């Protein structure tokens, strides 16, 4: 074990030199200045080489800007930040924007909304009698031809302001004259975000945003945003608008790009090279943190049997792995069960600390952990790693899992799930101003599990999924909307499989309760210790409809099944 730790320290240092951590300061992610003239911003993303010239120096440097220093200090206050593990296999690094990445990029069209005047005789929209200096009560975009896109969302300048109203879009299928019916976009999305006062939340790049809506391949769009009425009728019978709409409303049209799996392997220097071994530095760093679980550049992390998972965990933790029989004396809470130092990782990526030790009291011989499920990596779903911030942020442990739905609709095929995820990732980073996709894991309606935020699937990566409770938790989002639609049994089973494994790494009982300290929200004040189910719905930590009533009703089944998978 000492030899293993020494080797781990050595390769981590090597990785730190190979992949310097840097904070993205992409100006394209910054919201427009308040009061600035509204102009169309509908060009595709600049090549990565153009962005890095301003935001990420191509020449490695050990110096930091004041912004990077401030962010690093903020992140350190939240949790330790670790460098990615060294590659487990030789890798050919290529510059950002090379042939490896050209099949992935996609684009974002950001179009400003303007006051709408209802057509004569149309009484469905309220009057636009607001002064010219204030946002009108009804804004939108008339029918318009645009470049191809597949996902839409609406953003605005102030992330602390909620859009009190109704957002509707209709789209035209690409290459046709067929327009969809009006579709509602979920406006209640503020609760999916980084915790208040964290570096990610206070970066200055964050915008207010609706949930994203998957509409499929489209090349035409029409939008209307209507402020909620306060119930008082006008003289003509129409309702008076209540609170005005937030400033800086824009419709974001996301093209997920071409699925890299459909592209032929890239070529480097005229020699065919396997896709998995040709990685940009950012992609190599994202893959290297999973190198103990799968080869560098792997598109998926393979499943393990129950026996293999248990053996792997016991072997990693050594003779003191142990804990569990209910008759065994619990391990002292002031002594770690594992041999690794806090914040270090073993073969499974398990964090060795007292939190995990006390949570898993009673396990001696056989740990309570479910079989590791197959997980599609970020490489597998085609993440453009140049979009996210380079550094990874970790919490101390994983004490709870929050279940979400993406509210993006269920009108997708499972083969399209990687495209949906790439679109949500781009929307979270480029449109909403987050450091990376907010969820730690995503699950499609066929039960496939996908790696979310970068940093390692077995590690306690800090996400931006449950405002106020992102510390010491993980977020799992099922692709779809489950307020009126039943979640597929395969998706509920996947939640159980994933939590049985991941919570088992940290000694958490899926049927149990735990305490999390609130970072601030609309249900619990900042600093309050809140008793929650180890597997909770998003609405348990924040007043929201998420994860939809139908999915929330299935969490009891998921808890029981997850505990059974752990052998409890």
Extended strand count: 23
- Sketch the major β-sheet: 8 strands, antiparallel
Mean pLDDT: 74
Roughly what fraction of the amino acids lie in strands? 15-25%
| Gyration radius, rounded | 24 Å
**End-to-end CA span:** 29 Å
**Helicity range of the residues?**
10-25%
Q: What is the helix tally?
A: 11
Shape: globular
Structural class designation: alpha+beta
Poorly predicted residue ranges: 1-44, 46-102, 126-133, 231-241, 262-276, 319-363
Short description:
The chain is α+β, with helices and mostly antiparallel strands and 568 residues long. It is built from eleven helices and 23 strands.
Write a structural description.
The protein is of the alpha+beta class. It is built from 11 helices and 23 strands. Strands 2, 3, 4, 5, 6, 7, 8 and 11 form an 8-stranded antiparallel β-sheet that branches. Strands 15-16-19-18-20-17-23 form a 7-stranded mixed β-sheet. A two-stranded parallel sheet has the order 1-14. Helix 9 (489-505) packs across helix 11. The longest helix has 17 residues, at 2-18. The radius of gyration is 24 Å and the shape is globular. It starts with a helix and ends with a helix.
Ordered list of secondary-structure elements with their pairings:
Layout: H1 2-18, H2 48-54, H3 66-78, E1 92-93, E2 107-112, E3 114-115, E4 138-156, E5 165-173, E6 183-185, E7 208-209, E8 213-227, E9 229-233, E10 239-241, E11 250-255, E12 267-268, E13 271-272, E14 278-279, H4 281-288, E15 300-301, H5 306-317, H6 354-359, E16 375-376, H7 378-381, E17 400-405, H8 417-431, E18 441-443, E19 449-451, E20 473-478, H9 489-505, E21 513-517, E22 529-533, E23 535-537, H10 549-552, H11 555-566
Parallel strand pairs: 1-14, 16-19, 17-20, 17-23, 18-20
Antiparallel strand pairs: 2-11, 3-4, 4-7, 4-8, 4-11, 5-6, 5-8, 9-10, 12-13, 15-16, 18-19, 21-22
Helix pairs in contact: 9-11
């Amino acid at each position: 074990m000492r030899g293993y730790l020494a080797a781990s320290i050595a390769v981590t240092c090597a990785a730190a030199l190979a992949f310097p951590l840097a904070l993205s300061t992409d100006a394209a992610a910054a919201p427009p200045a308040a009061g600035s003239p509204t102009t169309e911003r509908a060009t595709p993303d600049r090549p990565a080489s153009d962005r890095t010239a301003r935001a990420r120096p191509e020449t490695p440097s050990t110096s930091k800007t004041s912004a990077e220093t401030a962010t690093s200090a903020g992140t350190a206050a939240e949790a330790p930040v670790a460098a990615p593990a060294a590659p487990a296999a030789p890798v050919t690094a290529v510059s950002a924007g090379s042939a490896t990445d050209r099949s992935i990029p996609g684009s974002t069209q950001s179009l400003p909304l303007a006051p709408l005047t209802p057509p004569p005789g149309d009484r469905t929209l309220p009057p636009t009698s607001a002064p010219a200096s204030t946002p009108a009560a009804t804004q939108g975009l008339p029918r318009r031809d645009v470049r191809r896109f597949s996902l839409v969302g609406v953003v605005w300048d102030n992330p602390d302001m909620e859009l009190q109203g109704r957002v509707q879009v209709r789209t035209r299928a690409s290459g046709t004259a067929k327009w969809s019916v009006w579709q509602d976009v979920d406006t209640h999305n503020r609760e999916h975000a980084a915790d208040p006062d964290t570096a990610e939340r206070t970066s200055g790049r964050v915008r207010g945003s609706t949930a994203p809506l998957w509409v499929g391949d489209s090349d035409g769009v029409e939008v209307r945003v209507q402020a909620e009425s306060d119930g008082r009728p006008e003289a003509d019978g129409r309702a008076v608008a209540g609170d005005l709409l937030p400033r800086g409303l824009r419709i974001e049209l996301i093209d997920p790009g071409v699925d890299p799996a459909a592209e032929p392997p890239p070529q480097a220097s005229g020699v065919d090279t396997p896709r998995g071994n040709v990685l940009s530095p950012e992609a190599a760093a994202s893959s290297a943190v999973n190198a103990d679980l799968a080869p560098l550049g792997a598109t998926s992390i393979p499943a393990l049997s129950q026996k293999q998972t248990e053996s792997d965990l016991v072997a990693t933790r050594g003779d003191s792995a142990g804990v569990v029989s209910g008759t065994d004396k619990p391990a002292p809470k002031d002594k770690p069960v594992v041999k690794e130092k806090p914040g270090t990782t073993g073969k499974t990526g398990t964090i060795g600390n007292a939190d995990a030790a006390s949570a898993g009291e009673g396990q001696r011989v056989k740990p309570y952990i479910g079989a590791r499920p197959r997980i599609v990596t970020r490489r597998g779903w085609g993440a453009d790693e140049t979009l996210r911030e380079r550094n990874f942020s970790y919490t101390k442990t994983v004490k709870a899992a929050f279940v979400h739905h993406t509210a993006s609709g269920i009108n997708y095929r499972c083969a399209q799930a990687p495209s949906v995820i790439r679109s949500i990732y781009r929307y979270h980073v480029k449109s909403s101003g987050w450091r990376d996709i907010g969820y730690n894991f995503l699950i499609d309606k066929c039960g496939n599990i996908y790696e979310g935020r970068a940093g390692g699937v077995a590690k306690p990566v800090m996400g931006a999924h449950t405002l106020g409770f992102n510390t010491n938790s993980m977020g799992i989002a099922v692709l779809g909307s489950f307020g009126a639609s039943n979640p597929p049994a395969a998706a509920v089973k996947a939640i159980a499989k994933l939590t049985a494994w991941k919570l088992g790494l940290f000694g958490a009982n899926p049927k149990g309760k735990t305490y999390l300290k609130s970072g601030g929200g609309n249900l619990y004040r900042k600093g309050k210790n809140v008793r929650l189910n180890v597997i909770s719905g998003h609405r348990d930590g924040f007043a929201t409809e998420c994860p939809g009533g139908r999915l929330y009703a299935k969490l009891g089944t998921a808890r029981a099944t997850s505990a059974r998978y752990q052998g409890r």
